[in-house]
User: Which sequence fits this backbone?
């Protein structure tokens, strides 16, 4: 399964809403779609699993949705610490694949 | 506290062999898959493969099958990533990551805990 994220870069201001897209080359079980955040020099951090479940400690401004071949990560109001790179991932049957990432940068 | 602690940075020459490690603690090591993820400088995440420490079952991503060996030693709660002959193109940060399990809903979680990363530099 190939995951394609769009846009490649999203330029927004703090307080704005961010909508990130992840499209799969074939259907992904909704239980097996995750989103990660990665900041420079850090390991990725799990944000969302099972399409829409927030991982422990993740703020409510992060939400995930979608099904089949199209999934979305939404950040309702960007905080300064949210500017980072975001990756989607499918993890069906312990065979994983990552999207190429979307960079959310300060406008 | 769950922790994955990886071995330190390595500098190697092309053609050399290398084995890096990832030690788990704070959880039952044999109950969770451990994966390895490559990140080349300035690039995205690439899934290399996973190992189930209880029985050492492994699965590899298509790009990495035959290129690396993933293993685990449950007696010392450690997973490994190994190369027999490094290339300059293997220069990257390598992360180990635990595939989590949500016991409340009975579903897989993706990578819930990550190691700090091991930087491998291959240069003549």
Assistant:
């Amino acid at each position: 399964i190939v995951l394609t994220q769009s846009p490649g870069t999203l330029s927004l201001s703090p307080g704005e809403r961010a909508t990130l897209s992840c499209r799969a080359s074939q259907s992904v079980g909704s239980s097996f779609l995750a989103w990660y955040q990665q900041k420079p020099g850090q390991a990725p951090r799990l944000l969302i699993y099972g399409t829409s479940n927030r991982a422990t400690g993740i703020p409510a401004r992060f939400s995930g949705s979608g099904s089949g071949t199209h999934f979305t990560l939404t950040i309702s109001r960007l905080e300064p610490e949210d500017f980072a790179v975001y990756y989607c991932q499918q993890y069906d049957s312990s065979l994983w694949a990552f999207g190429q990432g979307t960079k959310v940068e300060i406008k | 506290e769950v922790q994955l602690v990886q071995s330190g940075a390595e500098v190697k020459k092309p053609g050399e062999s290398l084995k890096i490690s990832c030690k788990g603690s704070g959880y039952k090591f044999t109950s969770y898959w451990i994966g390895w993820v490559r990140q080349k400088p300035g690039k995205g995440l690439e899934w290399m493969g996973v190992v189930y420490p209880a029985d050492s079952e492994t699965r590899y991503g298509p790009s990495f099958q035959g290129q690396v060996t993933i293993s685990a030693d449950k007696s010392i709660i450690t997973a490994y990533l190994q190369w027999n002959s490094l290339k300059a193109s293997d220069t990257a940060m390598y992360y180990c990551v635990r595939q989590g399990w949500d016991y409340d809903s009975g579903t897989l979680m993706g990578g819930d805990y990550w190691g700090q990363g091991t930087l491998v530099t291959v240069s003549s």
